[in-house]
Amino acid sequence: HVQLVESGGDSVRAGGSLRLSCVADESTFNSHCMAWFRLAPGKEREGVAAIYTGRGSTNYADSVKGRFTISQDNAENTVYLQMHSLEPEDTAMYYCAADQRSSACYSGTWSWHRMYTYWGQGTQVTVS
How confident is the model at residue 1 (pLDDT cuts 50, 70, 90)? Predict the structure, then answer.
């Protein structure tokens, strides 16, 4: 049973920062494509960032480049999403996703939610 557990969501003022965490069991974390998606009311699910834990290579949505950073802590089996300069448009439920295929993290596929097998329950980010 694969488990992804997100935390760190909160309500913040525009311009503020948050760090989201996604803890995975070790078998999921090793050499997996792990990503953050977000879903806002009335909008489609959007890929925010992805990291291939085998190499540490990353991809970002244009809307968050320069503001968000995805990173990994191998010792803690955790992927982080550090978010700075938050905007009201960043308000959404943020989900952690994972897939064992390295191809899920290719630049042309990482933002397709159907590429991911495992999903967390989400953590809410509200920016006002």
Answer: low
pLDDT of residue 2: 72
Q: Where are the beta strands (DSSP E) in 1-128?
A: 4-7, 11-12, 18-24, 33-39, 46-52, 57-60, 68-73, 78-83, 92-99, 118-119, 123-127
How far is it, in rounded angstroms, from Cα 96 to Cα 23? 9
DSSP character string of 22-48: EEE-HHHHTT-EEEEEEE-TTS--EEE
Q: Chain-wide mean pLDDT for the chain? A: 94
Q: What is the pLDDT of residue 73?
A: 93
Closest to 96 in 3D by CA, of 126, 74, 72, 75: 72
Partners of residue 86 on adjacent β-strands: none
Instruction: Give the C-alpha separation, 31 to 46, whole Å.
Output: 23
Q: What is the pLDDT of residues 46-65, one digit of tens each?
A: 999 999 998 899 999 999 99
